[in-house]
Design goal:
The chain has helices at residues 2-9, 47-60, 78-87, 114-122; strands at residues 91-96, 103-107. 2% of the residues are buried. The chain has a two-stranded antiparallel sheet. With 133 residues, it is an alpha+beta fold. The protein is built from four helices and two strands, in the order αααββα.
Length: 133
Amino acid sequence: MLRLARGRAGQLRNVSFHGLEGARLDALADASLDRLYRHSVLVHIDNEDVYRYLREVRRVLAPLAGRKESWRPQLATAPELREMIRRAGLSEILLVDDSHLLQAFVTVDAAPGMLERERSRLLPLVPGQIGID
C-alpha cells in the first residue's frame, strides 16, 4: 500500500507516508499536525489497540487555536460546491464526486490551457470515476 501511495502522490511536497507498527505513530512528533486524514483504519485494528491508536492521534494533533473543528460533517452536493467555487472567483480544475467524499481541486486566475493541463496531471492520481461537467 505504501508503494502504491508513493507512486500516486509521492511528488507532492506536503505529503509523507509512514508504515505503522501496531497502534503507534512514532514517525510523528507531538503536536506536529494540524489535521490527520485516516480512512478505514480502525476496522483493521484489534479492539484492544483502538484506544492506544486514538491516544496517539491525540498526541500528534496540534490544538485548534481558534480554528473551526475540521471533523464537523459539512455536506454539499457537487452542484452546490461548483456554485460556491464559481462565486468565490475560483476556477475548477477537477471535481471528484464518485463516492461519499466530495473533492475539489481549484486555482486562481487560470491561464489559457492551464486547467486542462492540471486536470490531465491530476486524473492519474484520483482513482474511480471523475465528475466533470
